[in-house]
Design goal:
Order of helices and strands: EEHH
Number of strands: 2
C-alpha cells in the first residue's frame, strides 16, 4: 500500500513554461501537475530559467503516486468489504427465506394431516350415523308391527264386546 518503494521508473521533463510532461506512459491528473508546478518552499532552487528541481519533482511525483495508489487501494478495499457485506446480507436473506419456506411447508403438512384426520373422523361418524339410522328404522318397524297387532287385537276385542252387548240387549 505504498509502503515500499516503486520499481517503476518515471522520466519527466519541464518545458519553458514549467509544464510537466510525463515521458514514460504514466498519466498524472491535472491536480497533481498543478501541485508539482507550485513552489514547495519560498527558497526553491532553480537550475536555470524555468528549470525544475528534479529531486523535488521526483519526490512529489512519488508522493502523489503513493497517495493515488493508497486511494485506489482504499477504494478497492471498500468495494471488497461492501461486496462481502452484500454477500453476507444475501446469504442471511437466503437463510431467512429458506427457514420461512421450511416453516411454511411444515405448517402446510400439519394442516394436510389435520384435514386427513378430520376426513377419517367424518367418515367414521357417517358410518356410525348409518348404523344408528338402520337400528332406529328397525325399531320403528317393530313398533309399527306391534302397534298394528295391538290395533288388530283391540279391534277384535271391541267387535266381540260390541257383539256381546248387542246380543244381550236385543
Amino acid at each position: 500500500m505504498g509502503g515500499g518503494g516503486s520499481t517503476r521508473r518515471v522520466t519527466f521533463e519541464a518545458d519553458e513554461n514549467e509544464n510537466i510532461t510525463v515521458v514514460k506512459g504514466v498519466r498524472l491528473s491535472d491536480s497533481v501537475i498543478d501541485r508539482m508546478k507550485e513552489p514547495s518552499s519560498p527558497g526553491r532552487q532553480h537550475r536555470g530559467a524555468g528549470a525544475v528541481n528534479d529531486e523535488e519533482l521526483k519526490k512529489r511525483i512519488a508522493e502523489e503516486l503513493a497517495l493515488e495508489r493508497a486511494r485506489r487501494d482504499s477504494e478497492a478495499q471498500k468495494r471488497r468489504l461492501f461486496g462481502k457485506l452484500l454477500e453476507r446480507e444475501r446469504i442471511s436473506s437466503n437463510e431467512h427465506l429458506t427457514r420461512a419456506i421450511l416453516r411454511e411447508r411444515a405448517a402446510t403438512e400439519e394442516e394436510r394431516q389435520k384435514a386427513q384426520r378430520f376426513a377419517r373422523q367424518l367418515e367414521e361418524k357417517e358410518r356410525e350415523l348409518k348404523k344408528h339410522d338402520a337400528y332406529y328404522k328397525e325399531q320403528l318397524a317393530r313398533l309399527e308391527e306391534r302397534s298394528a297387532q295391538f290395533y288388530k287385537v283391540t279391534t277384535e276385542q271391541y267387535q266381540k264386546a260390541a257383539d256381546e252387548v248387542s246380543a244381550r240387549f236385543k
